[in-house]
User: Fold this.
Amino acid sequence: MASAGLDGTVNIWDLRKFGNNRASAHSRAPQAVASYSGGRSVNSAFFSPSGHALLATTMGDKLDLFEDAHLSAKKNILKPTHSIKHNNQTGRWLTTLMAQWHPSVDLFAVGCLKQPRRIELMDSKGKTVQELQGDLLTAVASRCCFHPSTDQTIVVGGNSSGRVTVFRS
Assistant:
């Protein structure tokens, strides 16, 4: 399991080491298997559907990708294999950006602050595969997700003001 934190860390946990959730006063809290310090707060951390990539959205204006993070951590320290410069400074009025994986393919979507507004689709190496934009995408899509349908790609972008845009290909 991966967790993201306001303290700027991404942690990987081994759930098998959690044991009984009714800890006694003498038991030790579980320790993360590996950690990464992104400097500024981390909005999200998600494993790809294949489990081979971990994606973190940070307020340090980057998207960090870790390949086989659970296998490659040295001395309990994670290092990104790819770090993509990405403006994640949504400010106080917009919902923070969170990059999200496709449910069955190692492809992710993330909203973008660039004009004209767009949703970026990237592969597990951080390469932009496609930019979705159009006249109806007038607001920043802070949250993006894919419909799990396998016959066509459907991407939905939305934000806390209630604006939702659907892209189909």
